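Hi D.,

Good news: the full-assembly prediction came through. Inputs first.
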Amino acid sequence: KNEVEQSPQNLTAQEGEFITINCSYSVGISALHWLQQHPGGGIVSLFMLSSGKKKHGRLIATINIQEKHSSLHITASHPRDSAVYICAVILGDNDMRFGAGTRLTVKP
Amino acid sequence: DGGITQSPKYLFRKEGQNVTLSCEQNLNHDAMYWYRQDPGQGLRLIYYSQIVNDFQKGDIAEGYSVSREKKESFPLTVTSAQKNPTAFYLCASSILGGQPQHFGDGTRLSIL
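Then the structure:
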C-alpha cells in the first residue's frame, strides 16, 4: 500500500463546479505539500501546510493531522485549472513521499 | 526570473548508451534533487545533493549517477545499467534544510 493515497485518480468537471481532491497518508509527517503539474510536465508548488487551512485565490487546502487527511478545493473551476494535482508528505529532511496524482479536466 | 532549467525536453537514445540530463538553477539554492515519474506512480527520488561536491542516493539510485561540481548545476546520467530508463525526469531545488518547492519542466527520456 502506498504511503500517500489520492482520490479520485481522474476527475472531470464542468466549468464553474466546486472541486475536491483528497489525500490520505499513513505515516507521521511534519508537513504536507500540494503541487500542480501542468500538461507540459512542469510542477508548481501550490501550498505547504502543517495544520488548519490555507487559501490562495480560488484554491483552498485543508489538513487534519489526527485523521491523516488533506483536501484541496477549487472554487468556480475553470478550464485553465486542468492539470494533475499531486499531494506530497514531508517525513523529514530530504524525505518527501508523493501521491500518484489526480488528473483534473475542467470542460468549458 | 529565477528558476530551474532542464534540457532537453525530449531525449531519445539507443539501448545501451549512457545519456546525461541537464539541470541548472539560478535560485542560489544549496539543495538539488532528481526525481523519476512513471505513469500512475508518485515521484521517486533518485539522488539529491545538499552542497557542492556531495550527494546522496535516493530510493532508486541504481543505474544512475550524478555530479555536483557547481552550485548551479546537477546533471543526471542514466547509465546502460538502468534496466527501464524510459520515464519522465524532474529536477528540483530548495534552500538548505528545506523541501523541494521549485521544479523544472522535466525531461522525457525514451529508449529506442
